[in-house]
Amino acid sequence: MEDCIFCKIIRGEIPSEKIYEDDEVLAFLDLGQVTKGHTLIIPKKHVRNVFDLPPETAAEIFRRVPKIAGALKEAFPLEGLNVINNNEEVASQTVFHYHVHLIPRYSKNKDDFGFKWKDNSNTYSAEDFKARAEAIKAHL
């Protein structure tokens, strides 16, 4: 895509700190660095988000995730890692070229990244829960 910032990075029109590249995938440091080593993994073919992601492209990306995550673990004294993907503006996607974030976590108390899951299990019934599962399964 002509004006996509990630496509421009792939074409070498915008500089980046590339850490991995092959024919299908590019990984580079996120300019914002939520934590030290925050890395983005993108397909070289422009795809907007997970809803448009072909299964073979997903396989190519996620085939590289363990290798790059392992390199982060070896390079830095991290204690954990978040693998995150945001899809569409409502879910905090800001660049509309599919990408996976690898966000190293160094300490529960020292990271300035407050990502936590909220347990909402007390807000729905067992019947509601089953109905949600059935609604999803009906479209697979």
UniProtKB/TrEMBL annotation:
- Tell me the InterPro entries matching this sequence: HINT (IPR039384), Histidine_triad_CS (IPR019808), Histidine_triad_HIT (IPR001310), HIT-like (IPR011146), HIT-like_sf (IPR036265)
Where in the numbering of this chain does the HIT domain appear?
A: 5-115
Tell me the protein's name.
HIT domain-containing protein
Q: Which Pfam families match?
A: HIT (PF01230)
* Locus of motif Histidine triad motif: 97-101
